[in-house]
Amino acid sequence: MASPPAPALPAKLRFPSRKAIRWVIIALVLVAVAIFGMRYWQHARTFVSTDDAYVNANTVEIAAQVSGVVTEVHVRDNQHVETGAPLFDIDPRPYQAALDKAQAQLELARQSTLQQSAAVAQAEAQLAQREAELRNATSNYERTRKLVQSGFLSEQGGETARTAVLTAQAAVQAAQAAVEQAKSALGKTGEQNAAVKSALAAVEQAKLDLEHTHVVSPVNGAIANLSLRPGNTVAPGLPLFVVIGDQEFWVDANFKETELKRVHPGQTAEVKLDMYPDRAFHGVVESVSGGAGTAFSLLPPQNATGNWVKVTQRVPVRIRITDPDPNRPLRIGTTATVEVRAPD
């Protein structure tokens, strides 16, 4: 016996057709695309972004200022140091000997100055004696001349007195020349004497060289690229390792030249580092480079020769990080993504 047919469902309980479902899905997708497009358009109007950005900081190359053998290294690679912390020492013995020699030369210069001062005093005393003799000879000549005129003395006696005056005058002139010569040899007196000042400068230089045998850190930061060991011989001005300063960090962000009209110093920025994807740092635009990166490369492109293809250039923009986090130390050279708030 056949079963009775199932009762038909009411119209309100009927399921929508596949075509209706398809249209609903399409409508939802279009709404999602519209919302996403609107948000992307608003974001593009408000921000300029680039992922061609790298962290940077002040780096100080440490070099010896005097030559010598390294006797001790006080730091390790990657160690954090404070300003004034000892880095390494150079054998100070040659420079201590140079300082002792310079100090001895200074004493000799002072003694020589005292001797020359005594010579000046002696020459001045001789001049005073010769001037007194000249006055005496002049006085005798005046008396003799009157006696000759009165006939109480012969002409020969007068000539003798006159010769004595001339001789005394010549002696005075010689004494004056001796004084000038002694003063010229002496120069300035005391610590202002040229020989003494030269010896003092040599002492100061020797002291400075001795101080430079103890090298200290000029900034707070981290040691990098250290390979110095006791026994190494160092030369002045030759970089030995680097101290990366931790007082200031910035990002060199390379924006397309077509975006630069919206980037200006003073604008705020958000920096996301690839090494800390869960942390956003804040920054401020400090400056925009005066040229594209290729303009400062070792071999800049020569677009005036050969086939030329126009390529959008990138210009470095310096963005200072305003909130570095000690718990997330920044490393120079690491990559970042930068968004600069630059509304139209």
Give short descriptive properties of this protein:
344 residues, Elongation Factor Tu (Ef-tu), domain 3, 4-stranded antiparallel sheet, 6-stranded antiparallel β-barrel, Helix Hairpins, 40% helix, 26% strand, 2 domains, alpha+beta, 12 strands
- Could you give the order of the helices and strands? HEEEEHHHEEEEEEEE
Task: Specify the CATH homologous superfamily of the largest domain.
Answer: Efflux pump adaptor protein, beta barrel domain
Oligomer: single chain
Number of helices: 4
Largest sheet: 6 strands, antiparallel, barrel
Structural summary, described in words:
With 344 residues, the protein is of the alpha+beta class. It has two domains: 51-72 and 233-344, Elongation Factor Tu (Ef-tu), domain 3, CATH 2.40.30; 95-209, Helix Hairpins, CATH 1.10.287.620. 40% of the residues lie in helices and 26% in strands. It contains four helices and twelve strands; from the N terminus they run αββββαααββββββββ. Strands 1-8-11-10-9-12 form a six-stranded antiparallel barrel. The chain has a four-stranded antiparallel sheet with strand order 5-4-2-7, with no helix packed on it. A hairpin with a 2-residue loop joins β9 (268-273) and β10. α2 (93-150) runs antiparallel to α3 (155-186) and α2 runs antiparallel to α4.
